[in-house]
């Protein structure tokens, strides 16, 4: 899939996967759903749901590594900085042959524009946090999060899922 098509689909995902309300109970439901999906598929991932600086859900499943927590933090930092998915930012940078460091002066120590972190957005409010998965190839991390958000929101994501 071309970068332009990825960007168009992720834009649609970000417009569609928005909550009317989101609280700590919803954060737990989202994290639990992701955990259930990962266990069912035997995926060794770390899962994080955070309301800006407040942790609301975290799980590290069998097969994940200590590095996954660092990836979660770095991908989440991208979402909380730009209010867009980490994969969207990565695809935009790739399209322009830029890096976060060259364009914004942001260090790879703290920011990773790789797939797997998605903004938690509320209608009329905007981005209030991020949901992040780490442990799979970045495109699969991204797709897992999108699928879980779609399920929780009752949205059919098949039309804008990344292949």
Structure write-up:
By secondary structure, this protein is an alpha+beta fold. The chain has a single domain, classed as 2-Layer Sandwich (Beta-Lactamase), CATH 3.30.450. It has six helices and four strands. It has a four-stranded antiparallel β-sheet. Helix 1 runs antiparallel to helix 4 and helix 2 packs across helix 6. It is globular, with a radius of gyration of 14 Å. The N and C termini lie close together (7 Å).
CATH architecture type? 2-Layer Sandwich
Radius of gyration over C-alpha positions, nearest whole angstrom: 14 Å
CATH domain class: Alpha Beta
Low-confidence runs: none
Report the structural category.
Answer: alpha+beta
- The spatial strand order of the largest sheet comes to 2-1-4-3
Mean pLDDT: 97
Oligomer: single chain
Give the DSSP E fraction (strand runs of 2 or more residues): 15-25%
SSE series: HHEEHHHEEH
Distance between the termini: 7 Å
Map the helices and strands:
Layout: H1 3-16, H2 24-40, E1 46-51, E2 54-60, H3 66-82, H4 86-95, H5 100-104, E3 117-122, E4 126-134, H6 138-153
Antiparallel strand pairs: 1-2, 1-4, 3-4
Q: Which features does this protein show?
A:
Beta-Lactamase; alpha+beta; 163 residues; globular; 6 helices
Please sum up the structure shown.
With 163 residues, the protein is α+β, with helices and mostly antiparallel strands. It has helices at residues 3-16, 24-40, 66-82, 86-95, 100-104, 138-153; strands at 46-51, 54-60, 117-122, 126-134.
């Amino acid at each position: 899939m071309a970068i332009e098509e990825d960007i168009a689909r992720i834009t649609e995902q970000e417009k569609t996967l928005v909550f009317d309300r989101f609280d700590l109970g919803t954060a737990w439901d989202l994290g639990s759903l992701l955990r259930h999906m990962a266990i069912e598929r035997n995926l060794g991932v770390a899962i994080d749901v955070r309301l800006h600086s407040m942790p609301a859900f975290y799980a590290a499943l069998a097969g994940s590594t200590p590095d996954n927590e660092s990836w979660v933090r770095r991908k989440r930092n991208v979402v909380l900085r730009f209010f867009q998915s980490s994969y969207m930012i990565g695809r935009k940078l790739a399209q322009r042959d830029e890096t976060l460091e060259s364009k914004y002066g942001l260090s790879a120590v703290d920011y990773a524009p790789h797939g797997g972190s998605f903004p938690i957005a509320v209608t009329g409010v905007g981005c209030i946090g991020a949901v992040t998965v780490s442990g799979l190839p970045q495109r699969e991390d991204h797709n897992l999060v999108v699928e879980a958000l779609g399920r929780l929101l009752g949205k059919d994501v098949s039309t804008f899922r990344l292949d």
